Amino acid sequence: MSFIVYPALDIREGRVVRLRQGDYAQETRYGDDPLPRAQAFARQGAQWMHLVDLDAARAGGYTLAPLLAQIRQQAGLHVQTGGGVRGREDVQRILQAGASRVVVGSLAVREPDAVIGWLAEFGPERITIALDARQDQDGQWQLPIHGWTENAGVTLDVLAQRYAAAGMRHLLCTDIARDGMLAGPNLDLYRHLAALLPGVAIQASGGIRDVADVAASRAAGCSGAVLGKALLEQRMDLAEALAC
User: Fold this and answer.
1) Is residue 59 within 8 Å of 84, Cβ to Cβ?
2) Does the keyword Amino-acid biosynthesis apply (predicted)?
3) Fewer C-beta neighbours within 10 Å, C or N terminus of the chain?
4) DSSP class of residue 126?
C-alpha cells in the first residue's frame, strides 16, 4: 500500500489558520494566501493536499468550492476536503467542485447509516471517514461530538469496524489530545488501528512534528500522514517528508 503525504490547510474567513485542539478561541493565523501555498506544495512534489473549511465545520454549508476549483486548475493537486458536510447533496457538490475525496467527520459518528450509504453510492475511493478520538481513563477510545464536549456512546473500535465491513477504504484518525500540539503522533493508536482494520488506508493526523514522525507513522502501519502546523511554522521541509 502506497504512502501519501497530505500537506494541510485549514481555512477560516479566507485565511490560513490552525486551531489548538479544535478550539476556535485558540486560533493562530498564517496569512490569507491559500492558493499560493497550495501551488508551493505542488512545486515541492506533493500530489495530494488536505483542505478544511472551518467556517462550514461550525455552521454547515461548504464555502471553499471556488478555492477548491482554483487549486485543482492552478496547482494540479488532488484534494481531500471537508467541513460542514450535513447531507448527500453536500458530498455531491464538493465532488462536483473538483474534490478527489470528501472528508466526512461528525456526521460519520452521528449518522453512520447515511454515511455507509454514501460509501456505496459514491464509491469508497471518494469518501474519507474522519474519526476524532479521545482515550478515556479505562483505555477506550471514545468519539466526542458537539465540539468534542460529549461522547457519542460508541467507541472508535466499534464504529471503525462497522465502516470497514461496509467497504470503507480511507480512515483519517486524530488523537484529539495531540491536535495542534506538536507533541508527536500517537503511534500506539495507529498500530492498533492498522491491526484492527487490515486493508484500510489509515491517515495519521495530529501532533506530527518532523520527518521522523512521518517515517514513524508509516512504520506504524499508516498509509498517509496529514501535515499541518509543522509545515506552516517551517519546522519541517515538505520535500523531505515526501521523500521519506
Assistant:
1) yes
2) yes
3) N
4) G
| Residue 136 Ramachandran class (φ > 0 left, ψ -120 to 50 alpha, else beta) | beta
Comparing CA positions, the residue from 26, 80, 56 lying closest to residue 225 is 80
pLDDT in tens, 136-172: 999 999 998 866 566 778 999 999 999 999 999 999 9
Q: Which band of pLDDT confidence, cut at 50, 70 and 90, is reported for residue 21?
A: confident
- Grid cell listed for 78: 488532488
Q: Say which CATH number the domain at 81 has.
A: 3.20.20.70
Cell of 59: 455552521
Q: Exposed/middle/buried for 111, CB within 10 Å: 0-12, 13-18, 19+?
A: middle
What is the pTM assigned to this prediction? 0.95
Check if the beta carbon of residue 165 is closer than 8 Å to that of residue 157. no
Distance of CA 184 to the CA centre of its chain: 16
Domain tally, the chain: 1
Please state, in angstroms and rounded to a whole number, the distance separating the CA atoms of residues 22 and 43: 29
Place of cell 462550514: 56
Residues with catalytic function:
10, 132
Contacts of residue 235, defined as CB under 8 A and 6 or more positions apart, other chains included, come to 182, 209, 210, 229
**Angle between helix 156-165 and 112-122 (nearest 10):** 30
H or E element, residue 9: strand 4-12
